[in-house]
Amino acid sequence: MIYDLAILGGGPAGYSAAFEAVKLGLSAILFEKRELGGTCLNRGCVPTKFLAHTAELYHSAFNSREYGIISEKPVLDYLAACEKKESVVSELRSGLEQSMRLKKIAVVNGSANITDSSRITCNGETYEAKNILIATGSIPAEPLAEGALTSDEILELKSLPRSMKIIGGGVIAAEFAHIFSLLGVEVTIAIRGERILRKWDKEIAVALTQSFKRRGIRILTNQTPEQLSERSADVVLSAVGRRPNLCGVNTSLVETDENGGIVVDRCFRTKTENIFAAGDVISNSRMLAHTAMEQGKTVARVVAGRGAALPSAVVECIYTSPEAASVGLTEAEAKERGVQVVSAKSGMRSNARTLIAGTDRSFIKILADKNTRKLIGAQLVCDRASDIADELALAINHGFTVEDLLKAARPHPSFCEAITDAAEALSEKLNEV
Predict the structure, then answer these.
(1) Active-site residue, 59 included
(2) Which of 59, 178, 398, 412 is catalytic?
(3) I need a surface site. Which of 104, 316, 363, 402 has the fewest CB within 10 A?
């Protein structure tokens, strides 16, 4: 059988492409050497968010007295938490496997290799396809210290260390610092630069830095390579990013950048017309599961003759407490592009839900183009930021003006009503300039 679409990788880009392909009447086969769901489900998004939820519940139990809840000192059974984590992951993976069977998508478990533009070998057999999608994802970058654990390996711990050193200041580092500090581990972050989250809006970085320091997380800046590699804690986590996984990819059929990412066009085609790539493996990937899903669907639509454009503004999140989210442009990015940007911010100290929850310093900031009054970006540090930001992404992608944003009557009390406060402030500033 010659398949319409053969997919290497069963993560978000891969399985989303497969589901979209069969929906559009195409035949699809998917190759995965490990578990369906990829890093996101098995070693990334899902298990880390489970641990974050566990850590927040545990922390809340210690701080419930101010709400009139008095109980004996809670005890954490970390092994039981890990078992529950694996149960949740297993249930979701089983659901994905069942969906594949129901949709009659062929799934081959094994290490697949692209031999030419229409053939793939796996487990000693050869498969033919009219089109191939490379969705092999990414793997942790090499640890910067001998004996350091990667973000994959840290999830395999079955007991908590007394202390942990985290090398790196990006999203992965911030989320693990959040999790383990709430679980009672003494956490130190060590970075080469001046601040954590250097690729994020500076106000977000400052807010989370202050929140971390109040919780006792040490942040060591301007560290030398020798200082970074020092083993000054029971466990060292190297969280210095991820790199494209080119396992099984015939690199003569694709072009790669200096970081190993596969170069693609706007339809996610490689230099070989019928070979596509999507997700973490592509050049300049944002390495976001939800972006990978949309890219995978787009590939299936292109193969089916139905090209589709991706939304321009995509939400990026940091699952800490409070959460952080960014969508569209930051002020610095807008100025770099020559956009006359006007911004306004609503602090959450007057927000009823924030006061009830007792959240740390938080805010919602929105940006507009001075000339068109259209929203171009937003940055949030607040409870439910990952949920609230989607409204702002929709507004940006549909070209809403500040006045359009003010047409919504948001529920009270809610975290999202701070959007109204920020939009009113932004409208006033726009009228003044």
Answers:
(1) no
(2) 412
(3) 104
